[in-house]
Design a protein that fits this description.
Elements: E1 8-9, H1 19-28, H2 47-64, E2 70-75, H3 78-90, E3 99-104, H4 107-116, E4 121-127, E5 151-154, E6 175-178, E7 195-199, E8 210-215, H5 232-237, H6 247-262, H7 265-286, E9 290-291, E10 303-308, H8 314-323, E11 326-327, E12 338-341, H9 348-364
Parallel strand pairs: 1-11, 3-4, 3-5, 5-6, 6-7
Antiparallel strand pairs: 2-8, 7-8, 9-10, 10-12
Helix pairs in contact: 1-6, 2-6, 3-4, 7-9
The protein binds 4'-deoxy-4'-aminopyridoxal-5'-phosphate.
Length: about 375
């Protein structure tokens, strides 16, 4: 299938990017800043690229209101790389030997929990596995340990579609959050976290860039054998240029940050994200044909899984959606059904077009 226009892309990541950003990147591709070359062909240490790098960091700091006592590292290796880097850098801070607590609410936090077991004691403080990850275990059931180096959770489970909206209160124990799939979708109070990390390919830019926001006092110790490339201190001391950073990803992230600022920042994004997700959830709840399996209070604003009343219709739904210009709605293979990922860059018109299609499909297949 080919299109002569831009379609609505509901992919979970790599995901849709703002059209204005893509147009600017296209316009600048062959001759960036009058240099007669693209941005990805120049040295990461050139003064032109360094200016982009500094501005990108500053714009992220402004957007998220990141205090000066936090380092922003622009790394590679994805969210899954951080599943190893975080225990390697933080577990030595535990009182009596390497240890951390994990809140497991879906596929991604479960991966974090499992990876951490290689580096120390990973305590399963809470899990919603028995509820098929359709809900968040209530706070009163969490078995946090007082001697953990940190508590890890994933605030938005991209596959299951559950989101945790308030920061866990853990006393002196730093909170580590995987924000891969909701970073920049709403304001967060960075000062309540020890580490925030996210792969860029959902709400930030192309795949290949990983953002780590880490409180300075947590940097410096690593477990024996930590690869140099996973040592936060090395990256912090070298302004994320110990090795060649993902320069094009940083440039694109910079354009997205400027786009977000022009849109009114994260408070404005939250408002529109509430509006977009409510449109779809309200329709799902009113329909006998479609169903959302997620507990009301834990519904993600970014990733919305849903099922059809008869799974035998799934294939026809996806085929007709694609013909209508609504792409990548297939649910993750672990949960089946459909999933609409509606990150910052998905315009409200895309959500409305999806609902219109869903209505007509339901009528035709009633
Ligand atoms: N965490 C979350 C919440 C994710 O959605 C993903 C990827 N879909 C990851 C971690 C893994 O990220 P990466 O593929 O960048 O390693």
């Amino acid at each position: 299938m080919t299109f002569d226009r831009r379609i609505f892309n509901f992919a979970a990541g790599p995901a849709t990017l703002p059209e204005e950003v893509l147009k600017q990147a296209a316009d600048e591709m062959l001759n960036w800043q009058g240099l007669g070359t693209s941005v990805m062909e120049i040295s990461h240490r050139s003064k032109e690229f360094m200016a982009v790098y500094e501005e990108t960091l500053q714009d992220l700091r402004t957007l998220m209101n990141i205090p000066d006592s936090y380092e922003i590292l622009l790394l590679q290796g994805g969210g899954l790389g951080q599943n190893a880097a975080i225990p390697m850098n933080l577990m030595p801070l535990a009182k009596y030997g390497p240890k951390a607590d994990f809140i497991v609410t879906g596929v991604w936090s479960e991966k974090s929990f499992k990876e951490a077991q290689k580096y120390g004691t990973a305590n399963l403080a809470a899990t919603s596995a028995a509820e098929r990850f359709n809900t968040i275990p209530s706070r009163s059931t969490w078995k946090l340990s007082s001697d953990a180096a940190y508590v890890h959770y994933c605030a938005n489970e991209t596959i299951g579609g559950v989101e945790i909206f308030s920061v866990p209160q853990t006393g002196d124990v730093p909170v580590v959050c995987d924000m891969s799939s909701h970073i920049l979708s709403r304001p967060v109070d960075v000062s309540q976290y020890g580490v925030i990390y996210a792969g860029a390919q959902k709400n930030i830019g192309p795949a290949g860039l990983t953002i780590v926001i880490v409180r300075e006092d947590l940097i410096g110790q690593t477990i024996a054998g930590t690869p140099t490339m996973f040592d936060y201190k090395i990256h912090a001391d070298n302004d994320s240029m110990y090795n060649t950073p993902a320069t094009y990803g940083i440039y694109m992230a910079g354009l997205v940050f400027k786009w977000l600022k022009a849109k009114g920042g994260l408070a404005a994004m939250e408002k529109i994200n509430i509006e977009k997700s409510a449109l779809l959830y309200d329709y799902l709840d009113a329909s006998d044909f479609y169903h959302s399996p997620i507990a009301l209070e834990n519904r993600s604003r970014m990733n919305i899984p849903f099922t059809l009343k008869d799974a035998a219709l799934d294939e026809a739904f996806l085929k007709q959606a694609q013909e209508t210009g609504l792409l990548q709605l297939k649910g993750h293979k672990l949960v089946g059904g459909m999933r609409a990922s509606i990150y910052n860059a998905m315009p409200i018109e895309g959500v409305k077009a999806l609902i219109e299609f869903m209505k007509s499909f339901a009528i035709a297949n009633a």
